[in-house]
């Protein structure tokens, strides 16, 4: 599904160059659940923006479902964002003046879904996520965990095959974070591919594969040896060969 081949991203501001991604390559198959870990500034969000067609690499190629994203026009990239990808962010990014129901309906309006279907689908998604009695609440009247569930419902509105999440539990208490991970695990079982950035080992433990990024490079990838590291283990070195 995802093929990142020798991708680099260099930010240039005035005379300063920052190498955010340095010649990074990996593949993610449809149906995987991947956690991306790494210290602050290691390039995780930059990678996520490229995977989400929100930004383009300085060098290298990104192929999504057989299409070279770098060769697509802006409106074609926008189409991919709206139809194939659901985004979940640390800070929820809900529109504060709209109800939960209207927040979830919004991407369907851009996606050309008829109004009756928008109303029904948004209500069903929110009900499935345990918010059936909160449809008319604005975000400020919801807890963090509830706001994140609205954001997940919104991400699912266009039935995307790929879900990209940047620290989805970063603002949540442990219990709420685990509830969100329970939802992610179910979505993955239903066939959604998930790529999620996290700093937390216990949250990464919900994924089936962990890619560790350091200084814009892949430091370790549990997918490359078929099983994930045990929680809390130091480094990726399994001793001399
Ligand atoms: N728009 C930008 N312009 C210039 N430099 C940038 C820009 N965005 C990110 N960077 C730089 O690129 C590097 C990678 O940033 P990125 O946001 O991808 O890190 P991150 O791994 O997501 O960090 P964090 O865990 O703190 O969110 C950093 O050195 C950052 O300062
Ligand atoms: Mg980041």
Description:
The protein has helices at residues 44-51, 74-84, 100-110, 115-128, 144-156, 174-189, 201-204; strands spanning 2-13, 16-28, 33-37, 59-64, 67-68, 85-89, 162-166, 193-197, 209-214, 217-221. It has a domain at 2-93 and 161-224: P-loop containing nucleotide triphosphate hydrolases (Rossmann fold). Strands 6-7-8-3-9-10 form a six-stranded mixed beta sheet, sandwiched between helices. It is α/β, with parallel strands linked by helices and 241 residues long.
CATH-assigned fold name of the domain at 2-93 and 161-224: Rossmann fold
- CATH class term of the domain at 2-93 and 161-224: Alpha Beta
**CATH homology-level superfamily of the domain at 2-93 and 161-224:** P-loop containing nucleotide triphosphate hydrolases
State the major sheet.
Answer: 6 strands, mixed
How many DSSP E strands? 10
C-alpha Rg (nearest Å): 18 Å
User: What's the architecture of the domain at 2-93 and 161-224 in CATH terms?
Assistant: 3-Layer(aba) Sandwich
The low-pLDDT segments are 225-241
Ligands:
adenosine-5'-triphosphate, magnesium ion
Q: What class do helices, strands and sheet pairing give?
A: alpha/beta
The percentage of residues in β strands lies in: 25-35%
What is the ordering of alpha helices and beta strands? EEEHEEHEHHHEHEHEE
Average pLDDT, all residues: 91
Which strand order do you get reading across the main beta sheet? Answer: 6-7-8-3-9-10
- Helix count? 7
Helix content class: 25-40%
Q: Per the principal axes of the C-alpha atoms, what is the gross shape?
A: globular
Taking the alpha carbons of the first and last residues, their distance comes to: 33 Å
């Amino acid at each position: 599904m995802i093929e990142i081949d020798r991708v680099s991203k260099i930010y240039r501001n005035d005379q300063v160059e920052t190498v955010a991604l340095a010649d990074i390559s990996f593949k993610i198959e449809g149906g995987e659940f991947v956690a991306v870990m790494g210290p602050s500034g290691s390039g995780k969000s930059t990678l996520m923006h490229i995977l989400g067609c929100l930004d383009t690499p300085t060098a290298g190629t990104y192929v999504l479902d057989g299409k070279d994203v770098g060769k697509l026009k802006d409106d074609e990239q926008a189409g991919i964002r709206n139809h194939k990808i659901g985004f979940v962010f640390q800070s929820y990014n809900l529109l504060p003046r709209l109800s939960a129901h209207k927040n979830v309906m919004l991407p369907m309006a851009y996606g050309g879904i008829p109004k009756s279907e928008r109303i029904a689908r948004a209500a069903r998604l929110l009900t499935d996520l345990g918010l059936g009695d909160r449809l008319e609440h604005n975000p400020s009247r919801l807890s963090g965990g509830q706001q994140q569930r609205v954001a997940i419902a919104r991400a699912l509105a266009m039935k995307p095959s790929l879900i990209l999440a940047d620290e989805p539990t970063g603002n949540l208490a442990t219990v709420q974070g685990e509830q969100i991970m329970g939802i992610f695990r179910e979505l993955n079982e239903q066939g959604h591919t998930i790529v999620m950035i996290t700093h937390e080992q216990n949250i990464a433990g919900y994924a089936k594969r962990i890619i560790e990024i350091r200084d814009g490079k892949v430091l370790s990838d549990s997918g490359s040896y078929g099983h994930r590291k045990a929680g809390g283990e130091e480094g990726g070195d399994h001793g001399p060969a």
